[in-house]
Amino acid sequence: xxxxxxxxxxxxxxxxxxxxxxxxxxxxxxxxxxxxxxxxxxxxxxxxxxxxxxxxxxxxxxxxxxxxxxxxxxxxxxxxxxxxxxxxxxxxxxxxxxxxxxxxxxxxxxxxxxxxxxxxxxxxxxxxxxxxxxxxxxxxxxxxxxxxxxxxxxxxxxxxxxxxxxxxxxxxxxxxxxxxxxxx
Length: 184
Hints:
By secondary structure, the chain is an alpha/beta fold.
């Protein structure tokens, strides 16, 4: 059996970050190696050890981690990974990704990576429907970025509307679809 392609899983700072642990687990069970990159805000919601255990890899949380290699981890990962998945993708991440802002390990990796990307948005409905967020989404769609979700319904802050992280299995199915297409 051939080895499955490496997936870079970006986890950003929203309450839905805990669902990214389930996503990491499901991707690993499907046979995909997963390298997790977490933002500082993601670490406020879910601990690094959770993802280190589920991925069986060191989690990248900083541009300044010194692993003794000559090449920064996020740059080396950009050459190895075949797909970027960001779940949850916050309004902050979507804006930074749209405009090429690279101020942490995840956004710097995203700016370095030129393969396919899947974003699973999760945010307050007012953020999702804000004109700036809509414009950023449109720009990313034009660049070929894939969006899965968001779902509509109640969100953690009590608001109701589009902004809930979609079902994790939908993200897994999109990953499989994209990677099976890439292998053809």
